[in-house]
Amino acid sequence: MNHRYAAIFDMDGVLVDTYEAHYLSWVRMAEPEGLLFTEADFASTFGRTSRETIFSVWGDEHQFDDARVAKLDELKEIAFREIIAQDFPAMPGVTGLLKALHADGFKLAVGSSGPRENIELVLDRLGIAALFDGVVTGSDVARGKPDPQVFLTAAERVDISPRRCVVIEDAPAGIAAAHAAEMVCVGLASTGRTRDELAAAELVVDTLNELSPETLRKVIGSAR
Fold this sequence. Notes:
The protein is α/β, with parallel strands linked by helices. The protein has helices at residues 19-30, 39-45, 50-58, 66-86, 94-104, 116-126, 149-158, 172-180, 213-223, and strands spanning 6-9, 107-111, 134-136, 165-169, 184-188, 203-205. The model has no long low-confidence stretch (mean pLDDT 93).
C-alpha cells in the first residue's frame, strides 16, 4: 500500500447533511437577538465562516464589535450542535466510501471552515475519526472559502502534493477554493444544491455511492 493520493472532504453537506440544521441554527440564534435571517441569506453565504456570514448579512446595518460577533457565533454553533445531536443525518454511502479509500491507500482529510467542536461531533457520531490523517477546521485558518487556505493546509497535514489531492465539496465557494489550491474537485449535489451550481467541478455526483477509489484516481489523473 502507498499513499500517493489524498481525498479532502468538506464536512457540511458532504459527510453529514447539515443544510437544514445550519439554517435553523442561524434562525434560532437570530430571532432572540432581533435579527432577520432568511434562507436566501443562508444560500448566499453557504460554505463561508460564521464570522464572514455575520458581517455579510448584518454588517451594513450593525456595527458589531469583535466580542459581539464572537457571542453570536457561539450561540449559533451551540444551537447547531443541539439540533444535529437530536437528529444526525449522515450522508448516504459516506462510511463505505471512507473505508474503501482508506483501505486503498488514500490519505484522508477534512477541510472545513466549521468550528472544531462541530467537526469532532460529526466524526465521533460517524465512528470514522480514526480513518482521517488530518483535520482542518475554521480555527486553523484565517480565511474562509473560496480562499484555498483550508485545502492547502489539509494537503500539508497529510503530506501530499495539492496536484495529487481531490476535494469532495457541495458548494461553489468550495469548488473555487479547491481549484485555487490547484486541486481537482468532485461536486456533490446535496440538499439545497443543484448540479448546475456545481458544474465547475471535474465531476458532479448526486450521492457518495457513485464514488470509489478508482473513480477518484481517474479524476486526479485526468487533470494531470
